[in-house]
TrEMBL record:
Entry protein name: Lipoprotein
Highest taxon, organism lineage: Archaea
InterPro entries: Hvo_1808-like
Basic and acidic residues bias: start-end ranges: 60-71
UniProt-annotated stretches for the region Disordered: 50-71
Length: 492
């Protein structure tokens, strides 16, 4: 079963394509979507188009240029023109300009919005991308904070640098990004001769169009808030790109290109699952908006973006749902102090998409052959095949009732600890989460003591003590290096 899960991971990896903002700047993981390893980029993960390069149904003759700029025409090229270019050996400057112009015309034709200005596009190798986005030192407080957060989610164990792990995941999976500050796109190619993937180009052009029409600034500052915002932005880009590529070989001639390939390296299923959330569930939100009012309803959503992952997972709750304000008092002794990274909130909010990633990761980690979920709970099948449009399911019994949360991180100078409080729609939802979290603790080598505390084995990547307190619709998780120190961190 576990080998099947890993194989499915590989299959899904080859389906991913556009990435707009990653909430992790990987130097500031809780920053808004446009913050990234280069401080200002909008990513594209691996997403392979199903379109072809068949010219049989393409336009044979180009229409004359319009007197003024119109939708579906850009810089002298109509959306349905056939271009005399070959992409296999790369594109020269004039060929690239023509391809970009045609793709811009196609994006605005599908998305029913007009570009205001031309978007610059650069193509680089993966090695060049890695060298370009190595990232600066995030600082000790942010590193401690981020390490504790990903340890709390059982995604990155003690002794590993969570920011470095995230940067590695991006370095192997990103196929491109859009930089709002430079108003430019960079495409990342794995081919020996860098080539242009039309689906990746289209996806990033949607982000450029969003930036021109709505702006990509966001006041989202926590992981869950950014997941909500990204659900709209990436859902919009994926829906537009899907409509674009569906016309390839039918209405349009498209560039022939090899499927996007992974950059190799050590891929992390749990992080990949978490990062893919906006693409997997965001299209459902956008489809719901379009059914209610066409693209105009999607446009309106940029004035009131989703407040968190829950509204993306359950579009019927948008825009009325709001996360509850969770209070979490500091009740630590003088031996422990709060970790407060500068320039960002001094608390974390990790919501239902992150909790789902924790549970899904137990299908693929190499520590324990058990799992707390079954593959068919998190992988969506279309008949016997994985559903390429929506491969993952984040709406698990332990996630759907999430209504808010808050996490504080502490240090005694050498070690870290945390308290994490979540509130739920009902007491039953809170109990479901607590049971699921107990299963996660057991999976990672936890043994429950007589007083109900969990002690994780020394051999575990997460060898600590954990207490789980349930009170009505509220669950509080406390972590410390030892049982004795639990009450020092949070005197319950």
């Amino acid at each position: 079963m576990r080998r099947q899960s890993v194989a499915l991971l590989c299959a899904v990896t080859l389906l991913l394509a556009g990435c707009h903002g990653f909430e992790s700047s990987l130097g500031a993981p809780e920053q808004p979507a446009t913050a990234t390893p280069t401080a200002d980029t909008v990513f594209t993960l691996e997403l392979v188009s199903s379109g072809s390069g068949d010219n049989a149904h393409a336009s044979e003759t180009a229409r004359p240029d319009p007197e003024t700029d119109v939708r579906g025409w850009e810089n002298g090229v109509w959306h349905n023109e056939t271009l005399a270019v070959t992409s296999e050996d790369g594109l020269n400057e004039s060929e690239r300009a023509a391809v970009v112009a045609r793709s811009m015309a196609r994006v605005e034709f599908v998305r029913e919005l007009e570009f205001e200005r031309t978007v610059a596009v650069e193509v680089i190798s993966r090695e060049a991308y890695r060298n370009r986005t190595g990232g600066s030192d995030p600082g000790e407080s942010l590193r401690r904070f981020d390490n504790a957060k990903f340890e709390a989610l059982f995604l990155v164990g003690e002794g590993r640098d969570s920011i470095a792990v995230q940067r590695s995941e991006l370095g192997e999976s990103v196929l491109g990004y859009y930089s709002p500050s430079r108003e430019a796109i960079v495409l990342v190619s794995d081919a020996e001769t860098p080539t242009v993937s039309e689906s990746t180009l289209a996806h990033e052009l949607v982000h450029a169009l969003q930036d021109q029409q709505f702006g990509l600034d966001s006041d989202a500052r926590t992981r869950d808030a950014v997941q909500g915002y990204n659900g709209l932005v990436e859902g919009d880009a994926v829906a537009t790109t899907d409509s674009y590529t569906a016309r390839c070989g039918v209405q349009w001639e498209c560039l022939s290109s090899e499927p996007g390939a992974s950059g190799g390296g050590d891929r992390h299923f749990g992080l990949g699952f978490l990062l893919y959330f906006p693409y997997s569930d965001g299209t459902g939100l956008v489809d719901d908006r379009r059914e209610r009012g066409g693209w105009a309803a999607v446009n309106d959503a940029y004035d009131e973006a989703p407040d968190g992952a829950r509204e993306v997972m359950a579009p019927g709750e948008y825009p009325d749902w709001e996360p509850r304000d969770v209070q979490l008092a500091d009740r630590s002794t003088d031996e422990w102090e709060r970790v407060r990274p500068s320039g960002r909130p001094d608390y974390a909010v990790v919501g239902p998409s992150a909790i789902a990633a924790t549970m899904a990761y137990t299908l693929a980690d190499d520590y324990n052959e058990s799992a707390v979920v079954a593959p068919d709970e998190v992988f969506n099948y279309d008949g016997r095949s994985l559903d390429s449009a929506d491969p993952y399911d984040y709406a698990l019994p332990a996630t759907t009732g999430w209504s808010g949360g808050r996490m504080h991180v502490y240090t005694n100078g050498t070690e870290t600890a945390y308290t994490w409080r979540t509130v739920w729609s009902t007491e039953r939802d809170a109990e479901a989460f607590a049971r699921a979290w107990a299963a996660v603790l057991s999976h990672w080598g936890g043994t429950r003591t007589a007083d109900g505390t969990w002690v994780l084995a020394e051999s575990s990547p997460f060898a600590d003590a954990v207490a789980v307190h349930v009170s009505g619709d509220t669950v509080t998780v406390v972590n410390a290096p030892t049982e004795r120190e639990l009450n020092e961190v949070y005197d319950a």
